[in-house]
Amino acid sequence: MNLSPQPKANLQDGVEASILQIDAQNPAHLALLKQGYKNLLGHEASIHGAGMNDNVPSEVIKAIKAKILKVKFFMVGKEIGGIATSFDTFVAKRNPKTKRVEIYRGEYLEDFTVDPFLNQIFRKLNGIGLGTAFTRARLLQSVMGRFGISQAQIKEIAQDNEPMAGLMHKHGGVIGSAEDSRVLELKTGPTADMTRRFGANVEMLHLPGDRSGKKSDPNNFEISWFDGKQEIVGIFTRTISTFTGPPIVRLQLTSNGILPNDEMLKEVLSAIMIAGRDVIKDRGWGLPIGIPIPAFGGPVPVVRIHAHEEPEIVRALAQMNAEDRLCGSKLMVAAVLDNDNIPSQETVFGQPLLKAEKLNGFDPLEDANNPIFGFGPITDKDGVSPIRPPVFGAADNDNLAIKVA
Fold it and tell me: What is the DSSP string of 170-205?
């Protein structure tokens, strides 16, 4: 699909650029959303060979209102220069010193694209492209989150997406390969190979959803396995298809680098998948947004699995018949842009970024909560799942204005 060939703006040097977060209750924002979907996301879908009509799916609007999905525009003057869709999530990082997995707040970046025509004008005037300017503004904004400082952006990228690869590498991002970071998916829940197994002792943790830590995040939870030495953490995040609207669950799998042998690894991964499936059903994540959850739970939507730079996990999942994730005809791989890896932060942002702090870890060997055995109830002795304490940072700043020199 080609965007409008005529000039869309007479951009002048020094024009104000800003990030506008869409409010689905605002009619003017909804009009912008429709324009952005038709032009920018339609352009992205055509590049991937993925189907998409010109209308904003109703589930997208409901997801914005329910605070599941965020849609941000990069406005150049009064023109839409770029669009980014994202979901609040948590990221797991391996600590080589403690040999444990640590949990931080993060952001799952679903779509990211800029207007190619405005990009040419913007680059001539400012010496950098819209993609770079938008990325830097969003990274700066990410350390001003409502519920704490975001540690990283995670996403999936088409294996041959060279412009996105260049943008990621410029800011210290790491894109995995098909061998160690291929995104896999379960289209109808755990495979037959997974459900035939005995499983392993896994623990479900709520993740904090407010500043007090007393309220759990309704759109994220954690399933973990730890045997005193080996550790695998799975973070499940509620999302939707921003192209077409159906519910999707994103699963990030991270190990501490010490993995069990092949068969035991499969037992652990199967237990994480099955325990996660049960929580997803209980929470109704497979139902349209706002539909009451039946007593027996809801259906299980597609689960897309990110195991970034975890070749043994990717291989084990593929051997248990998890399928390759394709967007149109493109094979997708996992990528991470960690705030700690951004080069020359003071040069890029004019100031050092705030440092993200880990969420306090949960140790099933020292805590009074009892782990479950694969298929059992995911609760502690009082019938309530444990929750990771929160760590919070600067105040929220959803709409950020910047001056383009």
Answer: HTT-EEPPTTTSB-EEESSSS-HHHHTS---EEEEE
Give the confidence band of 400 by pLDDT, cuts at 50, 70, 90. very low
Task: Domain of residue 201: give its range.
Answer: 16-403
Task: Identify the weakest region by mean pLDDT among 28-42, 157-171, 363-377.
Answer: 363-377
- For residue 325, being part of any structural domain is answered with yes
Per-residue confidence (pLDDT) for residue 88, from 0 to 100: 93
CATH number, domain containing residue 85 = 3.40.630.30
pTM: 0.85
Percent of the chain surpassing pLDDT 70? 76
329 token code pair:
């005809």
> Is 65 within the bounds of a domain?
yes
Tokens 């040097």 sit on residue: 13
Mind spelling out the 3-state secondary structure of 252-273? EEEECCCCCCHHHHHHHHHHHH
Distances (CA, A) of 405 to 14, 297, 373: 5, 54, 58
Give the count of domains, the chain.
1
Residues 6 or more apart whose Cβ sits within 8 Å of residue 215 = 208, 209
Q: How far is CA 242 from CA 52, 193, 228, in A?
A: 10, 31, 40
Phi, psi of 221 (to 5 degrees): -155, 170
User: What integer best gives the mean pLDDT of the chain?
Assistant: 81
Residue 278 has pLDDT above 60, yes or no: yes
Pairing of strands 216-226, 184-186: unpaired
Using an 8 Å Cβ cutoff, are 113 and 173 in contact? no
Collect all residues with Cβ–Cβ distance below 8 Å to 308 and sequence separation of at least 6: 154, 174, 176, 180, 181, 252, 254, 334, 335, 336
Domain assignment of residue 258, yes or no: yes
Let me know if residue 7 belongs to a domain: no
Over residues 342-374, the pLDDT tens digits come to 777 666 666 666 666 666 543 333 333 333 333
Q: What is the mean pLDDT of residues 179-191?
A: 96
